[in-house]
Amino acid sequence: MAETWTVLKVLRWTADYFREKGIESGRRDAEVLLADTLGLDRVGLYLHFDRPLSADELAAYRRLVARRAQREPLQYILGETEFWSLPLRVTPEVLIPRADTEVLVEEALKKVTGAVGILDVGTGSGAIAIALAHELPEARVEAVDISPAALVLAEENSGRNGVTERIHFRRADLYQLQGGPYDLVVANPPYIPATDMDELMPEVRDHEPHLALRGGDADGLAAYRTLATAAASLLVPGGWLLVEVGIGQAEAVQRLFAEAGLDDCYLRDDYAGIPRVVGGRKS
Ligand SMILES: C[S@@+](CC[C@H](N)C(=O)[O-])C[C@H]1O[C@@H](n2cnc3c(N)ncnc32)[C@H](O)[C@@H]1O
After folding, report:
1. Cα(58)–Cα(217) distance, integer angstroms
2. How confident is the model at residue 209 (pLDDT cuts 50, 70, 90)?
3. 280: helix, strand or coil
4. Looking at the structure, do residues 100 and 220 belong to the same domain, yes or no?
5. Same domain, 27 and 109
6. How far is residue 97's CA from residue 83's CA, in Å, rounded to a whole number?
7. Is the dihedral of CA 187, 190, 193, 197 positive or negative?
8. CA distance 185 to 168
9. Are residues 169 and 126 in the same domain?
């Protein structure tokens, strides 16, 4: 007689298997993937621990488990994530938006209100631009990226969140930015130094786009050098440049901003206490 695989048995087996593969959040990931396969939420799984899986359900679930075992991020497997409590589709063409980046949105919302003009540099999935357009109904947002595939996805995400009318997506190279002047320029640019790329977790190194990760120059700070210099022409007087930075980069970027003549340069920590956002204002 064929073995019966119940919800609980499948979860236990998968959690062990993921642990062997070095995935720390094994049980949780197993629950998320099984819930997705069965069209339940995670609480629903707990209410149906004894439910047997059909052969088709088991086959579909196994396909997802095999992908996760290759260290593919859950968000790419599900094709979905949340940023600023807004639903976003994500594919391997774009960086998975991180909770840390919400700190950049929080800072931006302290700096501007009303009918302002905003530029989001390196928009990726559109996360920052969409969150700002959502919170600032009178703002006009321009969102640029070098990746055409990212721009297509970002525009789709803006439609899904009802802000397409107020975001203009266009292809542009951050090293040759034109336009504005804007009241606010935000950016979460690629910032990982090339020499650190091999150290990244397999989920990041082997699955997220290197175009979104690897920063230029030996220290990874090339984008910040360019943005600090470009701020003079991109911003209105009194306008703010706000950027996300990697661990250990904040003070160097703050110095770059000050050397480029920006005023009131400051750092903001993320919720883990790591300096994560650098801001500066055009005088
Ligand atoms: C770290 S990701 C940030 C994505 C998104 N803003 C977020 O916070 O989740 C950096 C983005 O910059 C884009 N990018 C890389 N090089 C670029 C360049 N030279 N000009 C414009 N965008 C660039 C990448 O395609 C990627 O979408």
Report:
1. 48
2. very high
3. strand
4. yes
5. no
6. 7
7. positive
8. 14
9. yes
Q: How many domains are contained in the chain? A: 2
Could you read off the pLDDT of 187-201 as tens digits, one per residue?
999 999 999 999 999
Known binding-site residues for substrate equal 188-191
| CB neighbour class for 54 (10 Å; exposed up to 12, middle 13-18, buried from 19) | exposed
Which atom of ligand 1 is nearest to 175's Cα?
19
Which token pair is 83?
Answer: 């940023």
Q: What is the pLDDT of residue 204?
A: 98
- For ligand 1, atom 26, the nearest C-alpha belongs to 212
* Bridge partners for 83 per DSSP: 86
b/e map 68-90, b = 16+ CB within 10 Å: bbebbbbbbbeeebebbebebbb
Helix (H) or strand (E) holding 82: strand 80-83
Residues 236, 273: one domain?
yes
Domain span including residue 187 = 94-281
DSSP class of residue 26? H
| Ligand 1, atom 13, residue with closest C-alpha | 122
| 64 and 102 fall within a common domain | no
Report the nearest atom of ligand 1 relative to the CA of 124.
27
Using alpha carbons only, give the angle 248, 111, 252 rounded to the nearest 5 degrees.
20
Q: Does 213 reside within a domain?
A: yes
What would the two tokens of residue 167 be?
């975001």
Cα–Cα–Cα angle for 75, 19, 247, rounded to 5 degrees: 55
Question: Of all atoms in ligand 1, which is nearest to the CA of residue 191?
Answer: 1
